[in-house]
Amino acid sequence: MKRSLKFISILCVMTFMLTALAACGGSKAPTTDGGTTPDTPKENTTDNKDIPTLVWWTIGGQVPNNFDKAIEAMNAYTAEKIGVKIDIKVASWGEWDTKINTIVNTGEPFDIMFTNSGKYSKQVAMGALADITDLVQSETPDLYKLIPEKVWEGTKIGGKYYSVPTYKDSALTQYWVFDDKYVQKYNIDINSIKTLQDLDKPLRAMKAEGKSFYPLPMTQGEGLNGFFNAYDDLTLGFAPIGVKADDTSRTVVSVLEQPDIMNNLKLLHQWYQDGLINPDAPTKTENDKGRPFFAAQAFPGAEISWQINDAVQKYDMVQNYGPIYTTSTIQGSLNAISANSKYKKEALKYLELVNTDPKLRNMLAFGELGVDYQNVDGEKVIERTSDTWPLAAYTQGTFFNLAVNKGAPEDQWEQVKKLNDVATSSTALGFALDITDLQTEVANCQAVWDKYKYELITGASDPEKMVPKITAELKSAGMDTIMNAAQEQINNYFK
Prior knowledge:
This protein is of the alpha/beta class and 495 residues long. The protein has helices spanning 11-23, 67-82, 96-106, 120-125, 135-139, 141-146, 149-153, 180-185, 200-206, 259-273, 302-310, 327-330, 344-356, 358-366, 412-422, 439-457, 463-477, 479-493; strands at residues 28-30, 36-38, 53-60, 85-92, 112-115, 164-165, 172-179, 231-232, 241-244, 252-254, 293-297, 315-325, 334-337, 373-377, 381-384, 404-405, 424-425. It contains 18 helices and 17 strands.
């Protein structure tokens, strides 16, 4: 995507300015296609050459035409506030896993990267992320004070901080989400649906919409969101190994072989065979808008944003699990700084501003003011005016300085804080598996899981045939070694 250049003067003047900047080493902001465009001059005494532009890799949807203009507005603001600009690179939901792995494995330069529990410990073990333990306290004390100690503790690996956690619904709460028109049409009692088995009747009722209508649409990467919630993955980001979250013995198990998981896998497979799940689920990479039903980790009022993004008149949400703290829920949204970044302090200061400045927070979450959203009550309430802004708010910073959408409860974020306050805890909370000596086994097991998981978690394959096959290959790849090490580490941690 090429940036649209807006000349603020006649061509000869701009050419002269660019030449002069290049001659003195002036900073240029990279575009999303790797080119450069002139930075917007800062309106104070700091020269452009003193304003670093940080590369921030994140996850999101398709970049809209006004993306660069929105980023320019943010950069004008942050250059004035802290003398830092940002170049946001967006990996799509479908390509994120592959893209981020490639960046880390090849050493491609970046300054900030969104990561999570599925990748974080591996990236730390590879030496890709900066140790910010001392720096975050000395350089950004307001950021450090903002985030509760329990949340910071959940990011620790080897006793050190390698990321800034996104302080939000840090305790996991899982919801079923229905398009209300189907709830009304088929008289679905959503409050009675607590388990996967409870979904069978309403999904089959909605199937009356037609042969090509799929009540439970899925994509390969997600399957049914939250399917493995009952098992703490020990921050490994690897579903086949875990500890049952309420198991006081903290016994590490082969998750796929557990009776509750097997029963739910069999139910998914039955739904797939009966046409309740789209047949292309194992290969589909992006969700369609306007899904009749989906599962999501969420919080009160989240449906308002989904309604806007999906052009759905009304979504109904019902809680079915949680809230619960695990180390992985805390590590579900993190922003880490590259170990090779030249601008570690500047990157931390930028993340501090994101987490403490409502104006910047809203721009990142909602887009271009006047195009993507309007302020209704200062920076406290906004109204979305487009559905094209691609960045996911949960990846960026705290929710507790973020505006609420018009129509959502004005105390929405207070409700989220209350969910955090009443959350139960996994029996393994605080523990993060150290994979320093397990990287070969983890990589080999991940390769096996990647080979089969899409068909398994979307219901396309028969679990009674596939789980024994997957388990046998995982054992050959070193799963028992990982499980034994995990059990030993857990026993030592909770002495």
